[in-house]
Specification:
Number of strands: 36
CATH topology of the largest domain: Glutaredoxin
Largest sheet: 6 strands, mixed
Structural class: alpha+beta
Number of domains: 4
CATH architecture of the largest domain: 3-Layer(aba) Sandwich
Radius of gyration: 27 Å
CATH class of the largest domain: Alpha Beta
Helix content: 10-25%
Oligomer: single chain
CATH superfamily of the largest domain: Glutaredoxin
């Protein structure tokens, strides 16, 4: 386990040999360019490598967007100049993105082109021209410099190398893009906010098909992906159940789905095994919502509407719960103030130990409940913490702050009830405490909540018990000011297991995380990748099919952290070195993984669930070796 701070190198991307030089003509400027454009908010788009690319400037920084075409010789000729600019401004909070405007270019084409021409910035595709229209780009190459407020502070040519298409300036003058960046980073005005670009007109996108309508296409997308939260009484701030409700928010729906901030699903597409309950939208669905918005949100024929989606009136878990736990109080959430993390201790008194196969969470007040997690305590430690603090429950942040023997999963907006496969269960001792951690966020008025959990016990014999372990790094250090500090962690798998789920976990400085497994034969497989970590959206990602991890496999985590002043989530006004800990101002690097012991069959006489014992023994061995290592160094 180690930390290796290392700024992420610029991404080299994209593809295609350029064509013969096009006919010579002067630049065509279709805009009034007296003043800079703005403000604009572009969010992020998926890059050609599958990673999200942020297009807005970070606080205190600048974003440079470069519209280019691999089929424009002038675009290609600027590749060395752009590489030098990226290198010169790489340490000054300037983010770069290339926007390819060629509709026919594939991700593979662009990857080849970036490699051949040495592009040093991430690349996204704009095949429909939506970004070009938003910013008013008409030429390739054309640069846009955007500040954190969304103001376009400079747009136009990169420099004066070309007088017109096909004609280079023998004595080039002007370095407008460089000069604009230098001035803005000094806090000075830009001398020339616009200088007409010289290059190739942006290709015309394919003529659009007939616009989609709400009744025929959009309503189905909203039903399947949005109404779980966006309906009356749910966590969404507004409903999306009717045409009028969707129509007035068409532009907003298009924007938040195009940058993939909604529906909230943090796992990068195409990375790792397939997950159950994947709420991410397909590229086709996103294109439909964008086209619908741009067409003016037409309603269409109401006869094309699907039947309304119905939702359970009470418990959705099949067969209903056998045991209902609630937090034991009508907890009051104030109108304002910071987020609240509260752990409620709920005693369980059953006639006998049980195995839980189904779990459903019911937040009592979804307008203030952000997420819920629950844990099993058999040592009474949570009760002691509860007794030491006034009121029902106790304050907690990252977890319950005690040693636990198991968990009962959790809930976040949009989550479905958890139903384990036949023969697999979670152990619930007859006498224990369930610690329910609820994350509240004030809504602007005083609210009350009484969250419940419904548990469904096993009806069929249980062969295997689900347990959690993790790759974690308690020695982690994130240096003050580091914007891309890397932390790694690893967990050697001690026995043959089957993996069922993963849960990445960091705190407020988290930037991105990747979990993978290296098998004994040296082969590696990704488990999950999160490109834009957000502490407010944490999930348990269950695989559609269990993954076998033989003994000797190593589960690995590589995470990056932004401990700079430019990170708006940084809890420290003045950045300081941050280490492992439970507090808001501390950090964590954990890749949780849910496993069952391969071949375990608790229906066989004499067989017991010993996986936790195996894990404890592994931890003790690690602690022993760690304690002995200074002695060994001293003896050497």
């Amino acid at each position: 386990m180690s930390i290796a701070p290392s700024p992420r190198g610029p991404l080299a991307l994209s593809a295609v040999a350029f064509l013969a030089i096009l006919a010579v003509s002067g630049p065509v400027d279709l805009r009034a360019a007296d003043e800079p454009l703005g403000p604009v908010r572009l969010g992020s788009r998926r890059g050609t490598d599958g990673k999200d690319v942020a297009l807005d400037a970070t606080p205190g920084g600048l974003a440079v967007l470069l519209f280019y075409s691999p089929e424009c010789p002038i675009s290609n000729a600027y590749s060395p100049t752009l590489a030098a600019l990226v290198s010169d401004f790489s340490s000054q909070h300037v983010t770069w993105a290339g926007i390819c405007v060629d509709p026919e270019m594939s991700d593979r084409d662009l990857a080849d082109h970036a490699r051949d021409f040495g592009l040093k910035f991430p690349v996204i595709r704009d095949p429909r021209g939506s970004l070009a229209r938003k910013l008013g780009a008409t030429i390739t190459p054309e640069a846009f410099v955007i500040d954190p407020a969304g103001k376009v502070r400079y747009h136009g040519r990169i420099d004066g190398q070309f007088a017109k298409r096909g004609v280079r300036n023998a004595n080039a003058t002007g370095n407008e893009l460089r000069d604009a960046l230098v001035a803005l980073l000094k806090g000075e005005p830009v001398a020339q906010p616009f200088v007409a670009a010289v290059g190739c007109p942006i290709p015309r996108p394919r003529d659009a098909a007939p616009a989609p309508t709400y009744s025929k296409e959009v309503a189905r997308i909203l039903q399947a992906n949005c109404q779980e939260c966006h309906r009356k009484g749910q966590v969404g701030p507004f409903a999306l159940e009717t045409y009028d409700q969707a129509r007035k928010r068409a532009a907003d729906i298009a924007a938040v789905t195009e940058d993939r901030s909604m529906p909230p699903w943090k796992a990068a597409p195409g990375i790792g095994p397939k997950f159950r309950h994947d709420r991410s939208l397909s590229d086709r669905d996103i294109a439909v919502l964008l086209a619908w918005s741009e067409a003016g949100a037409p309603e269409g024929d109401p006869a094309d509407l699907p039947a309304p989606r119905t939702f359970p009136a009470d418990w959705a878990i099949e067969g209903g719960p056998d045991l209902v736990l609630d937090i034991g109080t009508d907890f009051q959430v104030p109108a304002s103030g910071g987020d609240i993390y509260r752990c409620f201790v709920v005693p369980v008194n059953l006639p006998a130990d049980q195995y839980v196969t189904g779990i459903e969470y019911q937040p009592g007040n979804r307008s203030v409940v952000h997420h819920v997690l629950s844990y099993v305590d058999v040592a009474g430690q949570a009760r002691k913490r509860d007794e030491a603090e006034p009121g029902r429950g106790y304050t907690c942040f990252s977890g319950p702050g005690i040693e636990i023997v198991g968990d009962l999963g959790g809930w976040a907006p949009g989550n479905q009830p958890t139903q384990l496969e036949d023969g697999i269960g979670r152990a619930l001792p007859a006498k224990c405490d369930v610690v329910i951690q609820v994350h509240y966020h004030p809504s602007g008025k005083v609210e009350t909540d009484r969250t419940r959990i419904g548990l469904r016990f096993a009806r069929k014999p249980i062969r295997q018990v689900l347990h959690w372990n993790a790759a974690l790094n308690t020695d982690m250090k994130v240096p003050a000011g580091a914007s891309n500090a890397e932390v790694q962690a690893a967990w050697p798998v001690p026995v043959d297991v089957m993996a069922h789920a993963v849960v990445p976990h960091m705190h407020l400085l988290g930037k991105d995380m990747r979990m993978s497994v290296t098998f004994p034969d040296g082969k590696t497989r990704d488990l999950i990748r999160i490109d834009r970590w957000d502490f407010n959206w944490q999930y348990s990602y269950y695989f559609e099919q269990p993954l076998e991890l033989p003994k000797g496999s190593v589960v690995k985590v590589v995470a990056h952290y932004d401990n700079s002043g430019a990170n708006p989530s940084n809890p420290n006004k003045v950045p300081r070195e941050v280490t492992w800990g439970e507090a808001t101002t501390d950090e964590m690097c954990i890749g949780f993984i849910a496993v069952t012991k391969k071949g375990q069959d608790l229906t066989r006489p004499g067989e017991k669930d010993d996986l936790n014992d195996v894990f404890r023994s592994q931890v003790e061995d690690y602690r022993k070796k760690r304690a002995e290592s200074p002695k060994r160094r001293g003896a050497g």
